[in-house]
Write a structure and sequence with these properties.
The complex is a heterodimer of chains A (about 80) and B (about 350). Chain A has about 80 residues and is an all-alpha fold. Chain A is built from four helices and no strands. Chain B is globular, with a radius of gyration of 23 Å. Classes of the chains: A mainly alpha (about 80), B mainly alpha (about 350).
């Protein structure tokens, strides 16, 4: 977790941060389940962890969609040499 | 549970929260800031879970992990990812700094009046909470006290919260929505013309994966709404997950694809109908001779034995909340992603 944190904090590019945050999200699912075991109420925390797992990757898809569209748009702004991606 | 290392864990997480907040403020690229801000909400969710507030943690997980970052990303998509320093704004910045500092100092000055964390003698813990904990099973047959407080004892608050969601959706809709796709004043014309209508093959894996995942998400969300009586969850969380599943559909396929299934008119009608369902349950109670949102008098028209009426009433209300939240999320996302044109977007 610490290594991922370093990558999320320093992260030269946005993509580094994106991957790091995704890994943190995956790890927090595990942490949630550990908290559930500690509290002795695993069935409560399984729900949260499931919701987390189902929703965690939407941000990644949205961000990648963003980059896909932006790459398509940049040559248009330069008004030259646009090619279908 | 005396031996749990909750306190140390909380301190670690709080340090991380402050760290992430500072980082996301210091990053100049707004996209990176938005993504780091996602990690902030992960940490908040862990803090809530560590405190044992599972319902709040669930809300934080659903909203923070699923929807809010997507909203920010689609906003950035329609504006720009780089900050622009406005010239000559120093006095304005100083003014804002002054206002923020004064407000912070004012809020901190109220801090000593609060009871200690976990103080059993504080007014909330000494008077109200024991009543809820003692009576929720006999009153409403709902083991999850949070749900019964939310939708039954404090039903008025939740009705107004749902109305706030509705009003927020209407506000965003009325600000952003533009009638036609011809708003060429703020965007160059050619950009609209050559924006690629990407071929169906470009993201096959994402499409198939989301086609596989979305039914499970929706099933899980329905479980969260319906099972909110027994486990963490309820209308808000389930509604957010349902909305997130439709947003995922819009992202992985196309905005047009989503709008082909849910037209603009039906979306807004459903946003309103959720609040309407909630208010109608309350009115039905009045017509049956009770107080507003007093579910006990609904007993003759609801199935089940006599004392289950409040439980069923809570379920009806939660369904109303879920409908409003779900379609508000979808409508807000469509507005933000397509810049109010409802044609294409993120």
């Amino acid at each position: 977790m610490l290594l991922v944190l370093i990558r999320a904090i320093k992260g030269p590019t946005v993509i580094d941060r994106l991957v790091a945050i995704n890994v943190i999200g995956t790890k927090s699912i595990v942490l949630l389940l550990f908290a559930g075991i500690l509290f002795g109420q695993l069935e409560m925390f399984v729900d949260i962890a499931l919701g987390y797992g189902l929703l965690n990757y939407i941000v990644s898809i949205a961000a990648s969609r963003y980059y896909q569209h932006r790459k398509c748009l940049e040559p248009v702004h330069a008004a030259q040499g646009r090619q279908p991606s | 549970m005396p031996s749990l290392p909750i306190w140390e864990f909380d301190v670690l997480l709080l340090v991380l929260v402050v760290l992430f907040a500072l980082i996301s403020l210091s990053i100049r690229n707004l996209m990176g800031a938005a993504i780091v801000f996602g990690a902030y909400s992960f940490m908040m969710c862990l803090i809530w879970a560590g405190m044992g507030a599972v319902d709040v943690a669930f809300t934080e997980a659903a909203v923070g992990a699923g929807v809010s970052t997507v909203f920010i990303v689609s906003t950035i998509y329609n504006t720009s990812a780089t900050m622009q320093n406005k010239p000559g704004g120093l006095t304005f910045k100083l003014f804002i700094g002054l206002v923020v500092t004064l407000t912070g100092a004012f809020l901190l000055s109220a801090l000593p009046d609060f009871p200690e964390w976990g103080d059993s003698e504080s007014p909330a813990n000494a008077v109200v909470a024991p009543y809820y904990i003692k009576n929720t099973i006999t009153d409403a047959h709902v083991p999850n006290v949070v749900t019964s407080v939310l939708a039954d004892y404090r039903g008025f608050d939740t009705l107004l919260e749902t109305t706030v969601v509705f009003i927020a959706c209407i506000a965003i809709y009325s600000i952003l929505r533009t009638e036609t796709a011809k708003s060429k004043t703020d965007e160059p014309e050619e950009e609209i013309a050559v924006l690629p209508s990407y071929d169906p093959s470009d993201s096959l894996i994402v499409r198939q994966a989301s086609r596989f995942m979305i039914p499970f998400m929706q099933l899980f969300a329905l479980y969260v709404i319906a099972h909110g009586h027994y486990s963490p969850g309820g209308g808000f969380q389930g509604g957010v997950i349902l909305g997130a599943s439709l947003i995922l559909l819009a992202i992985s396929f196309d905005l047009k694809f989503l709008l082909g299934h849910w037209s603009e008119k039906s979306l807004m009608l459903l946003v309103a109908s959720g609040v309407f369902l909630y208010a109608a349950v309350g009115l039905a109670c009045v017509f049956m001779g009770g107080n507003y949102l007093d579910y006990v008098v609904l007993d003759p028209i609801l199935p089940g034995k006599g004392d289950m009426a409040r439980s069923h009433g809570i379920l009806l209300v939660e369904i109303g909340v879920g409908i409003t939240v779900m379609f508000s999320m979808v409508a807000i996302h469509i507005n933000l992603a397509s810049n109010g044109r409802f044609d294409r977007g993120l």
